[in-house]
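Thread: Newbie trying to understand structure tokens

Hi all, I'm a second-year student working on a class project, and my supervisor (Dr. K.) asked me to get a predicted structure for one chain before our next meeting. I've only ever worked with sequences, so writing a 3D structure as a token string is new to me. If someone could post the tokens and maybe explain what I'm looking at, I'd be very grateful. Here's the chain:
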Amino acid sequence: MLGLFGVYGSQGVDDQRRLDPVHMDPYRRGFLQIAGLVHRGIFASDCNKRKEEMIGPLSGFSGSSEQVAIGAVPWGSNEESVVAAVRRVAEAATDFSWLSRGDTVFVKPVSNTANLYPATTSPLAVRGMVRLLIEKGAGRVIVGDKPGVQSVYHDKAVQRGASRDVLVRNGLQQAAIESGAEVHYFEEAGFDAFFAAIPEHASHWKGELLFPNILNRVDHIILLPRVSRHALAGVTLGLKAAVGWLRDDSRLELHRDAGSFFEKTAEINDVKVLRKKLRLVLSVATKVQTTFGPDRGFTAEPDPGVVFGSESLLAHDMFCLGWLFWNREHNTPPAQLTWFRDPHVTYPGMMNRIFVGLIWGVGAFLSAETYSRVRIGSVQTDPVISRAAALWGGFPRTELIDVNGTLPESIAHYLNEKTAG
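---
Reply by user tm_fold:
Sure, no problem. This is what the structure looks like when written as tokens:
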């Protein structure tokens, strides 16, 4: 998404030159001038709202208990070792009793842009999951996602970009097909190939949400996110990945009516078809994008890396948030954590308004709302995770299952502490 702005925390001489105003093209330089004004508080309309605050009341614990499987993957492991870790974690996270022979399973990765993992889902996650599903009797496995509107835009009259091209370039199409799946591209089915739905609980959405019709023709959904910072949302994990289901007019409401941006992001996941059919959430997190995001940023490569899996979307995200914190604290140079390279802490609301204007035009920019920054330090102060907890009865008690028995105790202790709020 924020690749549109051309500024991000990154590495290497060429990237440093792009971040040097002397070498920037006028468009990027102009954006940075705007960003600098926001940083200094000159855009009063945004800064008056930009307080470090939590959105809504804190959710308590629900009393329910959920398991999250985690597999440690040593740094430098080959591809088949990562694929094997996907299999072990998936089988520890669910017993697959929900899968009957011949069932159709939709596997949704995150393919916001053509950029490679960890800006998008690891192709190894797709490869491992598709193989496992076929082995366990799935009759048909379908992989698909709708990239961000800056990569693929589709309305009644106009289409710019193509999901097929994006998934080829980031390696997800090849991973799917070579493993025995087919790939579904939402916009190729047509603008009218979507159905309307609303969240099961009271929500902040004004209009109906539009989901691809194929969801009504599959038996199960597997979600394969990745772990990343996000300049607008703070973080992007499993809950945020639901934006990839939506038709672009629903995405316009999300970004334009941004006073409830965080809440609406969580509420997408409360639609009946997702609640009823989601079976497993699994993230390969051997690399973590710890700054800027979602499309670019500093890439941490921890030793060990990990794979997370859970039947609970909320529990999955609670642990993945802790993993993002760990990598920001232990594997990210302080110079990468400045406001310039990690702008969510400074001006996300204004960045979102600019994004709306670039995609949907001046009229949408002028009517777009802004929103407050939120300093995320725990699951309870993450506004998307805490909204989901409020919808679903509170935070679950979580149990971490170390599938290999090789996760360092320091990491296990840290993750358990973070999920406890």
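A couple of things are worth pointing out once you decode it. The chain has 15 helices and 16 strands. The radius of gyration is 20 Å. Feel free to ask follow-ups in this thread.
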